[in-house]
Amino acid sequence: MYEQVSHALLNDILDAFSHRFRREDLRHFYTRLGANFYAIHSLFGHLYGHRQDFKEQTVRLTERLARAYIERPAALKALDMAREADHNWFLDQQWVGMALYADGFAGNLPGLIERLPYLQELGVNMVHVMPILRCPQGASDGGYAVSDFRDIDPRMGTVEDVRALGARMREHGMLLTLDVVVNHTSDEHEWACRARAGERAFQDFYYTFPNRDVPDMFEANLPEIFPETAPGNFTWNAEMQRWVMTVFNDYQWDLNYANPAVFIEMLDIILFWINQGADIIRLDAVAFLWKKIGTTSQNEHEAHLILQLMKDCCQVVAPGPLFIAEAIVSPSEIIKYFGEDAVIAKECEIAYNATFMALLWDAVATKNAKLLNQGIQSLPHKLDRATWLNYVRCHDDIGLGFDDADIRASDYDPYHHRRFLIDWFTGVYEGSPGRGRPFGVNPKTGDARISGALASLAGLEAALEDGDQQRIDQAVDLILTLHAMILSFGGIPLIWYGDELGTLNDDSFLEDVNKACDNRWVHRPRIDWQRAERRHQPGTVEQRIFDGLRQLIEVRKHTPAFADFNNRELIEVANPHLFVFLRTHPTLQGGSVVVAANFDANPQFLDLDVLNQRGLFRQGQIEDLITGESPALFNNRMVIPPFQFYWLTNQRARAQL
Ligand code: OTU
């Protein structure tokens, strides 16, 4: 029955289109629309079907898709076709990403174009350019408060510069990732201005209330994201004489997706940027898209429906571009952003692996891999054609969002263990070399997160201060080992800019009133290009990290077992300091790689019996892919030096590759 309803509607729409778009070649568009319309219609119906104007809204939505398709440049349409034919293209091990602020990295967008060779030197071929859209002059949450979704911040450049960047990157086989902040707008956005001026239609773009009744009901269950700087989830607007929902900062107004006009506008904006050449769109704060009284208003089922609908609509216009879900939530919830209840990914193809990131830091602080092993073991199975974005650091703080049950299973008490981690990384814990800062401290709940540059958290800053060569060496090893984990785990590794040079905390943000109260800026550096030159000077920290990373990237790209086909198996070993997993080659037997990392400050041994029992390394010499050498062995035990790792393979199998 239901199909007939959507088919009848589609027939009406296509009739109208055949007149309106008579001169356009819409063959491919029609194929995709036909294939996806039932899904689009039912999702849109789930969300908005109760409305009187549902049919008109559906027609409006479909028209926007047609227009976006017509506007899509021919070169991008050709790329779409190629990617449709080679639909697993993004699971390949060749992709290596870096996230960066265009201004901190290169001044502005034209500067970034000039610096692309530096990224190529390292081997990076996917760049996430942090928010560059028009935003307030003052505080803008690093561009995550957008004032105009179709314009570029003049301090960064122009829309034309973005197109030029995209074109240049395509020439070099690089992928461009841009942000679309779907959950909220800045209070300077035209929609917010018109809402303030009293226009009902635009007040309906947001959640606004005349008194505290509804806000108070919401507050009973809503957590606070920035408790220190933006307590509460609502802000009084005197001009409008209404409370506005502001889950993040008070100048970030939450969009109301119960209004189909909001959905259609935001989808149109996503389509706009993929038509400018973005290969990947990072969808910010997707867990927050649907609000419901009596819940935390995170990970609601409707948030998934909205994302599925966005994906289906994009498939119709442009099947090439991918979505990254930025949902920093519990492991069992993160996994759903690939597609809730789906067999193949139907929401976002890529999701931040916040679980792995936090677990890696746990291993750093505890010097063992107990919780890391436990947490990875309980990570739910991921869908096919879905992949992780694996990272060690990013622009945000580190949240200790592990599962309490996993912490307990590792013989720790959740509260005390998290307390220990905060103290360790902020250097409060006796003997810790951590130089991080507490972020988002909430005295009401006892929660806290951590800011800080990778090198400062990993002990390099402290070791350099003390001029302690052994600890400097160990910190360099640890930094490379952490990167080796994200490069071999399965998924797209995402390096945070500056980390490739061992960049330390930078306190200069304290001099800027718009940044001073948000210490995440301590790890959002301005690259010192003179210092970066030291990467060519043998023996410097910069050279050791940059070259080490460059080599890891190079090897990753030549190791098919590192492609992400859910071909990873955790290997349980008796030694708690080790994190060991197997990456199997998708087709070639013997092309497998065993990844083994030692998080301890002492050498540790790996019992090869465990591997032999699985049929691994029974014959032939074991070889580390990085050095090409055979690690030290004694009585079938392999020694892994402090804070180091191996990518192990069979020399014989390798010869066949
Ligand atoms: C995202 O953050 C961005 O990454 C932050 O930089 C922004 O401040 C924020 O949205 C608002 O735009 O929403 O789903 O620890 O991890 O705010 C997770 C807090 C988010 C961040 C969280 C995150």
Would you kindly provide a brief summary of this structure?
The protein is of the alpha/beta class and 657 residues long. Among the domains are: 71 residues, Oligo-1,6-glucosidase, domain 2 (Alpha-Beta Complex); 97 residues, Sandwich (Immunoglobulin-like), CATH 2.60.40.1180.
Largest sheet entry: 8 strands, parallel, barrel
Q: Which architecture of one domain per CATH? A: Sandwich
CATH homologous superfamily heading of one domain: Golgi alpha-mannosidase II
Report low-confidence residues grouped into runs of 5 or more: none
Ligands, deduplicated: 3-O-alpha-D-glucopyranosyl-D-fructose
Assigned CATH class of one domain:
Mainly Beta
Give the strand order of the largest sheet, numbering strands 1, 2, ... along the chain: 1-2-5-11-12-13-14-17
Global outline: globular
Oligomer: single chain
Count all strands and give the number: 25
Q: Taking all residues together, what is the mean pLDDT?
A: 96
**Helix-and-strand structural type:** alpha/beta
Beta-strand percentage range: 15-25%
How much is the radius of gyration in Å?
A: 25 Å
CATH topology of one domain: Immunoglobulin-like
Separation of termini?
54 Å
Helical residues, percent = 25-40%
- Helical region count? 24
Description:
The mean pLDDT is 96. Among the domains are: 184-254, Oligo-1,6-glucosidase, domain 2 (Alpha-Beta Complex); 560-656, Sandwich (Immunoglobulin-like). Helix content is 40%, strand content 16%. Helix 1 (2-20) packs across helix 2 (27-48), helix 3 runs parallel beside helix 11 (260-275) and helix 14 (354-366) packs antiparallel against helix 15. It is α/β, with parallel strands linked by helices and 657 residues long. It has 24 helices and 25 strands. The strands form seven sheets. The chain has an eight-stranded parallel barrel with strand order 1-2-5-11-12-13-14-17, surrounded by four helices. The protein has a five-stranded antiparallel beta sheet with strand order 18-19-20-25-22. The radius of gyration is 25 Å and the shape is globular. The termini are far apart. Bound molecules: 3-O-alpha-D-glucopyranosyl-D-fructose. The site of 3-O-alpha-D-glucopyranosyl-D-fructose has 17 residues, from loops.
